[in-house]
Each structure stands twice: as structure tokens, then as C-alpha cells.
Specification:
The protein is of the alpha/beta class. Helix content is 41%, strand content 15%. The protein contains 13 helices and 16 strands. A 6-stranded parallel sheet has the order 3-2-1-4-7-8, with helices on both faces. A 6-stranded mixed sheet has the order 13-14-12-11-15-16, sandwiched between helices. Strand 5 and strand 6 form a beta hairpin. Helix 8 packs across helix 9, helix 8 crosses helix 10 and helix 11 crosses helix 12. The chain is globular, with a radius of gyration of 22 Å.
Length: 392
């Protein structure tokens, strides 16, 4: 049984805390007292069915705190703090990661530091040199929003990036993740840190590429008056392509894909590439096309049904519909938003929140929904969505 400290109560940090606290002593640290209090009351601050179930039904060796003193007694410190993309500098803002490492260095130099935050390629080796600390490893996460614990319990693979001197630590960390999972014989890959960092960015950029591809197929079909759904079905029944991750949308968004695609593009600086830049640009083109389709209908007031990126989520960070809202407002269109995670007294991007669904529907000339909901069935005459398969 290990003593593990985890920095960050988000999708990654909290799901790992629940997973690892089944067989280890885990302390999770965050700067937001409200999140800490919820975890200690066994209430999830994020929407995740499996986390909520485990909090109610499982005995977990888990405490939450705002006190960084927890690093001093940890065998392993896992960093799961956010690294937002800085468009001005074309680089992830990794200051939160380095803050944690500096705190660990001052309290407990012997602790193994495992980075789960998404970081640029070559970053782990930079940290090893900067802090003269060999025992820093990187392990990319491959989690879906609202499914984070499920994906930790049923991982597609476990990847750990470590220098050769840290092979035993990398193997031990992979075994900890495997121990908490409910799948047997999960593929485990141990590689150099830079290779593991590349796996993360290339995997997410591939997913973004697939989204952009089917969105452009859908754009073509709309312009040409074709049935987009039938074309997609015909294409995807080819087993080499597959009937998955093919549902059109207003563009990709969320925690990972927008920032990871931009970071990979930045990592390609000075190298020949076309596709990575095209994926980033295609997402902006898609949002512009959707906006133009709405403006053609000449609405005075556009209603936005949910800011969230996908169904069964409470996250709307970098959701594609926000880019459309900005474009509509720039064109002089009034926008109202139905978003139950906000209150009627809230203002989002200078738009009014209206959470009386009947009033929202009545006030909207057109209703935009990135993902369809049965609550919208009586508004089909004014609904605009590209959710053809009713699937995320």
C-alpha cells in the first residue's frame, strides 16, 4: 500500500484518486475549498456516474485537503492540474505543473513525481534537467468527460514515459493503475518520456481529425442538398473506417482536443506538415459555416440550448457552440441561452440565461443544439442541429 498525493480535483485527478484509493492511501489537493469539502463529504464536484457510485458504495482510503503538506509524506505525487493553451505564446501554460514540482522538491525530494497533465513534447526531460530530479515520469491519460473513472477502470492501454534509470518506477506505477482497474491484461507500454508525450498529442489530434473529416462531409452534403446521414453510413460500413466517432457537430471542443491540436502544431515548428494545421483550421471553418447557415434564416433572436460540449456532461470549457455565439453576436444577433448549470441571474458572454424552457423556446426564432435532446421535440420547426445519430 502506497501513500499517494494527487494535485488537482478535476476529471483526471479525481478519477485517479478514486481508482487508487481502493488499495492505497490517497490525499488529493486542490486550491478550491468547495471542491475539497465536497470530496470529503463523498459528493462529486464533477458529473461522473461511476465516481458518484463509488462515493456512495465503496470504502475508499481518500481524503481531500488544500494543504500542500501532504506532499511531504507521499511515496508518489501525481500531477493532474490544468495546462491551458496560451495562444499568444503557442505553448501550454505549465506554470501549475511547475508549482507542484517545486512544492514537492522543497518537502520531499525522494517522492516519485508522475505527471498526468497534458504537456508539450520534450517537456518532461526539460523538467528533469531543470530540477536535477531523475524520478519524474509522464503517463498520458485517455479519459472521456463524464466517463473518467469508467475509462480508468477499463483502460484501453497504460502508457508510462520514463528515462531508463526510472524503468522500475515506471513499471511500479503502471502496476498501480492496473491494480485499481477492473480489466485484466491491459496493454502496458513503457517508453521514453518524449515518446509518451507524443502519443498523447497525436492520439487526440487523430480524434480531432476524424471529427473534422465528418464535419466537412456534412458541410458538403448540406450545401449540395444531400442526405448526410446516408453518406456517413455508407462510408463507415467499410470495416477499415468503422461506424464510430462519425456524428457531425458544430466542431470539436472540450478540455483536450482544441489545446492538444494547437500544441502539436506548435511542436511541428520548422518541420514539414500540412495536416495538423489543417485540422485546427478546419474546426474554425466549420464554426463559421454553421454561423452562416443560421444567418441565412435571418433570425432576430437565437436560442442556444446548452453550452456543454456533449450530452451527460457539465463541462462547457471551449465548447464549439461558444465560437458560434461570438460570431452571431458580432453579426448583431441577440442570443439567449438555456443552461441549467447556470442561474437565470447569470450572464454568459453578455448573453441572457433563460432557464424556463417554455419561455426560452418561445423567445427563440431559431434554437441551436450541438446535441439533440428529447425536450426539443416540440421545436423541430425551429431547431438547428447537426446531431444525426443522437450520439456523442
Amino acid at each position: 500500500m502506497k501513500n499517494i498525493a494527487i494535485a488537482g480535483i478535476g476529471y483526471v485527478g479525481l478519477s485517479l484518486a478514486v481508482l487508487l484509493s481502493r488499495y492505497n492511501n490517497v490525499t488529493i489537493i486542490d486550491i478550491v475549498p468547495e471542491k475539497v469539502d465536497l470530496v470529503n463529504k463523498r459528493q462529486s464536484p464533477i458529473k461522473d456516474k461511476e465516481i458518484e457510485y463509488f462515493f456512495k458504495n465503496e470504502e475508499l482510503n481518500l481524503i481531500a485537503t488544500t494543504d500542500e503538506a501532504a506532499y511531504a509524506t507521499a511515496d508518489i505525487v501525481i500531477i493532474a492540474v490544468p495546462t491551458n493553451y496560451d495562444d499568444e505564446h503557442n505553448y501550454f501554460d505549465t506554470s501549475a505543473v511547475e508549482h507542484v514540482i517545486e512544492s514537492v522538491m522543497s518537502a520531499n525530494k525522494d517522492a516519485l513525481v508522475a505527471i498526468k497533465s497534458t504537456i508539450p513534447v520534450k517537456y518532461t526531460n526539460t523538467l528533469i534537467k531543470k530540477y536535477e530530479k531523475e524520478n519524474i515520469i509522464f503517463s498520458p491519460e485517455f479519459l472521456r468527460e463524464s466517463k473518467a473513472l469508467y475509462d480508468n477502470l477499463h483502460p484501453s492501454r497504460i502508457i508510462v514515459g520514463a528515462s531508463k534509470s526510472q524503468y522500475d518506477n515506471a513499471k511500479m506505477f503502471a502496476e498501480l493503475l492496473q491494480e485499481g482497474a477492473e480489466e485484466e491484461n491491459v496493454p502496458v507500454l513503457i517508453m521514453e518520456p518524449t515518446e509518451a508525450e507524443a502519443v498523447k498529442l497525436f492520439a487526440n489530434t487523430y480524434l480531432a481529425t476524424r471529427i473534422a473529416y465528418f464535419n466537412e462531409l456534412d458541410t458538403y452534403a448540406q450545401i449540395c442538398g444531400l442526405d448526410s446521414k446516408k453518406i456517413i453510413e455508407g462510408v463507415c460500413l467499410d470495416p477499415r473506417i468503422g461506424m464510430y466517432y462519425n456524428n457531425p457537430s458544430f466542431g470539436y471542443g472540450g478540455y483536450c482536443l482544441p489545446k492538444d491540436t494547437k500544441q502539436l502544431r506548435a511542436n511541428f515548428e520548422g518541420m514539414p506538415q500540412n495536416m495538423i494545421s489543417a485540422v485546427v483550421e478546419a474546426n474554425e471553418t466549420r464554426k463559421q459555416f454553421i454561423t452562416e447557415q443560421i444567418l441565412k434564416r435571418k433570425p432576430k433572436t437565437v436560442g442556444v440550448y446548452r453550452l456543454i460540449m456533449k450530452s451527460n456532461s457539465d463541462n462547457f470549457r471551449a465548447s464549439s457552440i461558444q465560437g458560434i455565439i461570438k460570431r452571431l453576436k458580432k453579426s448583431g444577433i441577440s442570443v439567449i441561452i438555456y443552461e441549467p448549470t447556470l442561474t437565470d441571474n447569470d450572464i454568459f458572454d453578455e448573453c441572457r440565461i433563460e432557464n424556463d424552457l417554455t419561455k426560452f423556446k418561445s423567445a427563440s426564432d431559431i434554437i441551436l443544439a450541438n446535441r439533440y435532446d428529447d425536450y426539443l421535440e416540440d421545436t423541430m420547426h425551429k431547431l438547428y442541429t447537426r446531431d444525426l445519430f443522437h450520439d456523442n
